[in-house]
Design brief:
Blueprint: E1 23-34, E2 39-41, H1 46-60, E3 72-76, E4 88-93, E5 96-101, H2 104-117, H3 133-136, E6 139-149, E7 155-161, H4 169-181, E8 186-190, E9 192-193, E10 196-197, H5 206-209, E11 213-214, E12 232-233, H6 238-249, E13 254-261, H7 266-271, H8 300-316, E14 321-325, H9 332-335, H10 338-346, H11 355-369, E15 373-378, E16 389-392, H12 396-405, E17 409-411, H13 414-417, E18 421-422, E19 433-437, H14 440-444, H15 455-460, E20 461-468, H16 476-483, H17 486-496, H18 501-517
The structure holds acetamide (ACM).
């Protein structure tokens, strides 16, 4: 491991953090956290103290109370403006701990650093057959350290597709905790697609009643003619989603909801055929994988329907960003629909193909009119309304093209950020999206700086996001197998922007003890076996 940026050349295992802090220097001594420890919690720092206890108590039995003379200080100090929204400073010395930040979110990030500094066993959920907590937790120790830390990029996201395979909300809570542990701050919840509609909409209950269940699922990749014969379904209640939003907020994670428009809508068309281009046609919730030809019609009633849907989405999700889809919209139906051709003419468009941008423009206007920021997938970086933040998935060039046009951009290059691709080539891997494989090193190679380094463009790149599409991923174990440790590399690039594969690779080895304690699979690193010790 090479010396870099204040990092000692041989940091102790308990100082190997992922993502790497901006500045870290070891200090002598260790702080002992035991039943006599008290927290001194300044006004505004209570959520961070609560979060610290939420993590400590179940695994150590410790639940340090507030006291004015507490030696573990959590302090909000608005004068620390250089730390921004999410930065924090952490000093651990023998006789005290000081965690401070300008903003509450910074303290939440610092709590995750404290968790990483603790011995890994304090991350493990207690075993039902293990010793009682009171005897297990005499004390835990934090190593002496001085850290100043803040993120390189404000958007550090992970998408989970709960449309293709539904996951119970209890699992989403764990998923969020693992994101927060790596200082990610966005969970994009892909709530609707051809194969399922998971978000309840009071005005249109059939979206989940009909659209939430499919008769069976295709086995294997798009184009396969084999099916499993087993129904699959599920949807959330409003209370569950509100609970998830609160759980995420307590960890400094924003849940960005995604409603796919105007393609990837077959589940909505199954529930409400009048939304389609051919309203007399009856469609089932799609049982196949791939790109579906069926897209929304373009009548005023369709626009109004989805304005109502988006109103309910915005009511439930306080996120400043609302994702409206926009990807993979075949125009064949519009080109053969008299109503769509007439609409395109009426709107002054060159033809029905332009209904894609027009439709998204209407939805983006609605979201922006409600004071939120619309986000959409870029098909080429040049066709979305300028109000949209562009999530660029096909090639990095689309991201730079969108930035040049003046869009804010999230770099989601599929070759580096799609975790539904296999982690390695070869027969040992479970079924995955065909056509590509990406290992941890591939993710670490993610490029977040436009070529030529035009400062205006660079400033428009908000960050990056990993994607887990779940056509081939039915279980939570499989989700984690695909997500980790690749997400660690994404988090490293997004938070720390380090660019030293060997150094990161060594640190990731050290981090594995934490993943083990958290019961997160991380066995295959692809490039070489991990050494027994760091
Ligand atoms: C996408 O992968 N269709 C955004």
């Amino acid at each position: 491991m090479g010396p870099a940026d204040g990092q000692p050349s041989h940091p102790r295992l308990d100082q190997i953090l992922v993502p790497r802090p901006r500045r870290l220097s070891p200090r002598p001594g260790r702080f002992r956290l035991d039943r006599t420890t008290r927290l001194r919690v300044s006004p505004g720092a209570e959520p961070a103290a609560d979060l610290l206890r939420t993590y400590l108590t179940p695994t150590t039995g410790l639940s340090p109370e507030h006291a004015e003379d507490g030696t573990f200080v959590l302090a909000l100090d608005p004068a620390l403006t250089g730390l921004g929204e999410e930065g924090y400073g952490l000093t651990v010395a023998e006789h005290g701990v000081l965690l401070r930040a300008a903003r509450p979110t910074g303290l939440l990030r610092g709590v995750q650093t404290v968790r990483q500094l603790l011995p890994p066993h304090t991350l493990a959920a207690p075993r039902p057959d293990g010793p009682p907590l009171a005897s297990a937790a005499a004390a835990v120790e934090l190593p002496g350290v001085e850290i100043t830390d803040l993120p390189a990029h404000p958007w550090r996201g992970m998408l989970l597709d709960v449309a293709r395979h539904f996951q119970p909300v209890s699992y989403l809570h764990r998923f969020v905790d693992l994101l927060a542990f790596h200082k990610l701050n966005v969970l994009q919840l892909h709530l609707t697609d051809d194969q399922g509609w998971r978000m309840p909409v009071a005005a249109y209950p059939r979206l989940t009643e009909i659209g939430g269940r499919r008769a069976e699922s295709m086995i294997g990749p798009a184009g396969s003619e084999r099916f499993d014969g087993r129904p699959h379904g599920g949807s959330y209640t409003r209370a569950e989603l509100a609970g998830l939003v609160a759980h995420a907020a307590a960890r400094g994670v924003t849940v960005v909801p995604e409603i796919s428009l105007p393609g990837h809508v077959r589940s909505a068309l199954a529930a409400y055929p009048e939304l389609g281009n051919f309203p007399d046609r009856r469609l089932d919730v799609w049982t196949r994988w791939g790109v579906c030809d069926n897209v929304l019609g373009v009548g005023d009633h369709v626009l109004d329907f989805f304005r109502t849907v988006l109103d309910e989405v915005m009511d439930l999700f306080p996120s400043p960003y609302i994702h409206i889809g926009g990807d993979e919209v075949p125009t064949r139906e519009w080109e053969s629909s008299r109503a769509a051709i007439a609409r395109a003419a009426r709107e002054g468009l060159a033809g029905p193909r332009e209904l894609h941008g027009w439709f998204l423009g209407r939805m983006a206007d609605h979201v922006a009119g409600a004071g939120r920021r619309p986000v959409a997938w870029a098909e080429d970086g040049t066709t979305l309304p300028l109000s949209c933040t562009v999530m660029s998935w096909r090639t990095p060039e689309h991201a730079w093209a969108a930035a040049r046009r003046g869009h804010d951009v999230v770099q989601a290059d599929h070759r580096r950020t799609y975790f539904d691709y296999a982690r390695a080539t070869g027969p040992g891997e479970p079924p995955a999206q065909p056509g590509h494989a990406t290992d941890v090193r591939g993710v670490y190679g993610l490029d977040l700086l436009p070529p030529g380094g035009e400062p205006g463009q660079a400033g428009r790149v908000l960050g990056t996001q990993g994607q887990l599409w779940t056509e081939f991923v039915p279980t939570s174990r499989h989700i984690e197998y695909l997500t980790y440790p690749r997400l660690c590399a994404l988090a490293e690039r997004a938070w720390a922007a380090t660019d030293d594969w060997r150094e990161f690779r060594g640190r990731l080895d050290g981090h594995r003890a934490r993943l083990t304690a958290l019961d997160v699979p991380h066995d295959t690193l692809g490039d070489r076996p991990a050494p027994a010790t760091v």
